[in-house]
Design brief:
By secondary structure, the chain is an alpha/beta fold. It has a single domain, classed as Uracil-DNA glycosylase-like domain (Uracil-DNA Glycosylase, subunit E, 3-Layer(aba) Sandwich), CATH 3.40.470.10. It is built from 8 helices and 6 strands. The protein has a 6-stranded mixed beta sheet with strand order 1-3-2-4-6-5, sandwiched between helices. The longest helix is centred in the last third of the chain and has 31 residues.
């Protein structure tokens, strides 16, 4: 049986399991609808997230809010978490030992929320969820099935802020997400109709 998000958060309180605990301002657990159909998984908190204790509240988060509308989603409908719960110094890449220590909590969050669709933002989230060494560029734009989840890898919103050429690609991927959501809802309605009839 899965633990509640509150139980997982309580277990993480005051975490000192890796060196990131020494430099963080706040632990950034995750935020959103605890029964979300779609869960977004990013890499690690940035400066604004570390200060505000909430994922995706900086420039990348503002851009994400714009992209969500292309998929027919609102921020309050989704759940957002990161692979790491603490900010790496200078926003460096997560280290393997940090990922190893932190991802059991992410797995528990996914179990507690039980979304139908996982959207992985960037390389680290995509590699972890799909258990692959392939990069995001070769995996984005396609729906991958892992277990009971549909997984849609998308560039991290920060990537499009630094490289404007990625903007139209990300917009296409969020429209694909909207189509995937519609398809999953139609399949669910058909199943429920068969059960009731």
């Amino acid at each position: 049986m899965s633990r509640s998000l509150d139980d997982i958060r309580a277990d993480l309180a005051g975490c000192r399991r890796c060196v990131l605990s020494e430099t963080r301002t706040n632990l950034v657990f995750g935020v959103g609808n605890p029964h979300a159909e779609v869960m977004f998984i990013g890499e690690a908190p940035g400066r604004q997230e570390d200060l505000g204790a909430e994922p995706f509240i900086g420039a990348a988060g503002q851009y994400l809010n714009t992209l969500l509308a292309l998929a027919g989603l609102k921020r309050e409908e989704i759940y957002i978490a990161n692979v790491l719960k603490c900010r790496p110094p200078e926003n460096r890449d997560p280290r393997p030992e940090e990922i190893e220590v932190c991802t059991p909590f992410l797995r528990e969050q996914v179990k507690a929320i039980a979304p139908e669709i996982l959207v992985t933002l960037g390389n680290f989230a995509t590699r972890f969820i799909l258990k692959t060494d392939r990069g995001i560029t070769g995996l984005r734009g396609q729906v991958h099935i892992t277990g009971r989840f549909s997984v849609l890898p998308i560039f991290h919103p920060a990537a499009a802020i630094y490289d404007r050429n990625k903007g139209p690609i990300m917009e296409d991927d969020f429209r694909l997400l909207g189509r995937l959501i519609t398809k999953r809802r139609e399949e669910r309605a058909a199943r429920e109709g068969r059960i009731q009839s």
